[in-house]
Write a structure and sequence with these properties.
- By secondary structure, this protein is mainly beta.
- The protein has 2 domains: 115 residues, Jelly Rolls (Sandwich); 126 residues, Nuclear Transport Factor 2, Chain: A, CATH 3.10.450.
- It is built from 4 helices and 13 strands.
- The strands form 3 sheets. The protein has a 5-stranded mixed beta sheet with strand order 1-6-7-4-2, with no helix packed on it. Strands 9, 10, 11, 12 and 13 form a 5-stranded antiparallel beta sheet that branches.
- It is globular.
- The protein starts with 18 loop residues before the first strand and ends with a strand.
Length: 306
């Protein structure tokens, strides 16, 4: 996902996309026709996404350094009807995405579930301090604003599970309604969640959040991927997994498909230690298939490709 920046203390108008941080805790967020674009301008990689908890009372604070061309992400849980407030005195741009990859135009959170805040810098290197709350955020020496979010992912089968993260390419909508950016981010989220799915606590809810059809069945069925790992006292550890190239995207019909190249580093731990046959790094091509389930796009299946 991409995020662009606006100037320090510039108040934004909601236009439906990324927003620059505002110094007014009660202001809205959006594109401000300046350095913050309508859509994120940099890729959000799974390794740069951090899960946080934002309370309805008190303030959650995050501090980090960010460079132009790179995004950072924060995922959090919220309930339908809650409102995200944030403030910072630093020059950054923020987008908020829902779990189904919808880019929000304001900070009203439409449904219960997971949200992602994407942060980017418009130029140079910036160390930012970001304060967030799902309740009333006390005014401090920083600005506050609502933002959009994005989801996180999960994926794969036992001793051979692919992984990746970034999304790259402009949105292209067609009859399916799925865009290339959404498809890329969904794969990224899925790859990002694999460590939580294929190692304790073997999060089956994440599987349901990001997969459907045969992929969901293969992972959750008796004797499937999760059962195999659990019964064999094994787990996967994923590191530095990402999409390195997007070859094609076909969003015609009811089941869009995307061909991508994925680089992945993974380690399979078993009762006797590391299984070297199923561990290491690899670069492979895959075709991912997508399907809409109750209004949310999910990964239906995938296969290796030339």
């Amino acid at each position: 996902m991409k995020l662009n920046n606006l100037w320090l203390y510039l108040m934004l108008i909601i236009i439906g996309g990324c927003s620059a941080a505002s110094s007014n805790p009660n202001s809205n967020a959006g594109f401000a026709g300046s350095t913050c674009a309508e859509k994120p301008a940099s890729t959000l990689y799974s390794k740069d996404v951090k899960a946080i908890s934002i309370a309805t009372s008190g303030t959650t604070k995050e501090t980090c350094q960010i460079n132009t061309g790179k995004s950072l992400g924060y995922t959090f849980e919220a309930q339908s009807g809650q409102k995200l407030s944030y403030q910072t005195k630093d020059d950054i741009c923020i987008c908020i995405f829902t779990q189904d990859l919808t880019l929000l135009s304001n900070t009203d959170l439409p449904k219960s579930g997971k949200y992602t805040i994407q942060v980017a810098a418009p130029k140079g290197s910036t160390t930012f301090n970001l304060e967030m709350s799902l309740g009333t955020l006390q005014t401090s020496t920083s600005p506050v604003s609502p933002v959009p979010s994005s989801p996180q992912a999960t994926s794969n089968n036992p001793p051979n599970i692919p992984n990746n993260s970034p999304n790259t390419s402009p949105s292209n909508t067609n009859s399916s309604g799925l865009t290339q950016d959404q498809a890329s981010q969904l794969i990224a989220n899925w790859l990002n969640a694999k460590s939580q799915i294929f190692s304790p606590p073997f999060d089956r809810q994440l599987v349901a959040n990001y997969t459907t059809g045969p992929l969901y069945t293969d992972i959750t069925k008796p004797g499937g991927s999760i059962d195999w790992l659990n019964n064999n006292n094994s787990r996967y550890d994923y590191r530095n997994s990402r999409i390195t190239k997007v070859f094609s995207f076909d969003n015609s019909g009811n089941q869009p498909a995307m061909k991508v190249q994925i680089y992945e580093e993974r380690t399979l731990y078993g009762p006797k230690g590391i299984d070297s046959n199923q561990s290491g790094s690899s670069t492979k091509n895959y075709i991912y298939f997508f399907s809409s389930e109750n209004g949310s796009w999910k990964i239906y299946d995938y296969r290796t490709a030339e």
